[in-house]
Amino acid sequence: MKPNRQQVLLALLAVIAVIQVGDWVLNTMIQGPLQLRRARTEQLQADIKKRETSLAETRNAAKQIDGWMKQSLPSDPEVTRSVYRSWLLSLIRTTKLRNATVDSGSPSARKAKDNKVLFRSMPFSVRCRGSLTEFNAFLFQFSNAGHLHQISSMTLNPIGATGLFDISLGI
User: Fold this and answer.
1) pLDDT class of 33 with cuts at 50, 70, 90
2) Whole-model pTM?
3) d(CA 89, CA 53)
């Protein structure tokens, strides 16, 4: 028996309906959740990468702080005053500068917004005499010492025609 036109169209309609239902099932029950999981996986991987970057920055900051701790003086102001003053006088003797006096001021604290002390600084003043060659040697050793310090002021006054200078430094 030969199928008539209505049966062929009905069969074709049934096949199209099965394909549509299959496509809907595929999209909503298989591919939809799969795409959601892929998107979530990408989001989590991006979050992991961001956190790893943050962790690496934190580790680098910790290394930098450790380096600063090695360069810094003791936290006790009296010990700091004594140790740094001795170091300055030793450096002055090593570079053959003369008539040296080293005085220290009172320590000042640098605070964060929450009033937590970030660090303390202690001003020192140095007065001495010497030639430009000796002073240059002092500056070279001072800058290469690896301490967290800086010269904030400097005055050089010539002493007649002797080639010597009165040197005043604010540290």
Assistant:
1) confident
2) 0.58
3) 45
Q: DSSP character for 87? A: H
Residue with tokens 């299959």: 22
Whether 124 and 134 have beta carbons less than 8 Å apart is answered as: no
d(CA 155, CA 167): 6
DSSP character for 73? P
Q: Which residues of 97-135 are buried (b: 16+ CB within 10 A; e: fewer)?
A: beebebebeeeeeeeeeeeeeeeeebebebebbbeeebb
Using the 8-state DSSP alphabet, how is residue 55 labeled?
H
111-158 pLDDT per residue, tens? 777 888 777 788 999 999 999 999 999 999 999 888 878 899 999 999
Contact residues for 47 (Cβ-Cβ < 8 A; gap 6+): none
Which tokens go with 44?
A: 């989590």
CA 43, CA 57: separation in Å to the nearest integer? Answer: 21
CB within 8 Å of 125: residues ≥ 6 apart: 102, 103, 104, 105, 168, 169, 170, 171
Our CA angle for 94, 98, 104, nearest 5°, is 85
- The separation between CA 27 and the C-alpha centre of its own chain, rounded to angstroms, equals 49
